[in-house]
Specification:
The chain is mostly helical and about 140 residues long. It has one domain. Helices cover about 70% and strands about 0% of the residues. Helix 2 runs antiparallel to helix 3 (about 50-65) and helix 5 (about 85-100) crosses helix 6. The model has no long low-confidence stretch (mean pLDDT about 90).
Length: about 140
């Protein structure tokens, strides 16, 4: 976030107090990433090809999530499918305080919290059940 703050100050874009809401998306995306990592690591021990396939999936997933392009350019019929993508909501949670200077609205925070907690709990359960196998195969 330090480079973002420096660039914002350099171009004269003022930071609003809503910028500090970005702590919540950082925590939630960290939880989501940890859960997904536990799932991929656990499954990858049993099926090594999953790791290679995940790299391809991750590349496609980046383009199916409005990260490098605004969601305004996506047709309405396609935007409905984007809402099934968990990263769509997490990225939107970042955009509100950073790009638009808006506070986070509770519905989006709730959706993202459910996604993050569900992924983390699922990853933890899978990893815990496979701990002996992971230790044996490592």
């Amino acid at each position: 976030m330090i480079p973002y703050i420096l660039v914002s100050l350099a171009i004269g874009k003022p930071l609003t107090l809503n910028f500090f809401w970005v702590v919540i998306p950082i925590i939630l995306i960290s939880m989501f990433t940890l859960g997904l990592s536990l799932i991929i690591a656990s499954v990858g021990v049993r099926f090594p090809d999953v790791v290679e396939m995940f790299n391809i999936f991750l590349f496609a997933w980046m383009y199916l999530t409005p990260i490098i392009y605004p969601e305004d350019i996506v047709p309405a019929w396609l935007l409905a499918f984007f809402k099934f993508n968990p990263m769509y909501h997490l990225i939107k949670l970042f955009r509100e305080p950073i790009f638009y200077g808006q506070p986070l609205y509770p519905q989006l925070v709730g959706i993202c919290t459910l996604i993050a907690v569900f992924t983390l709990v699922l990853g933890w359960i899978i990893f815990s059940r496979m701990t002996d196998e992971i230790a044996y195969r490592s």
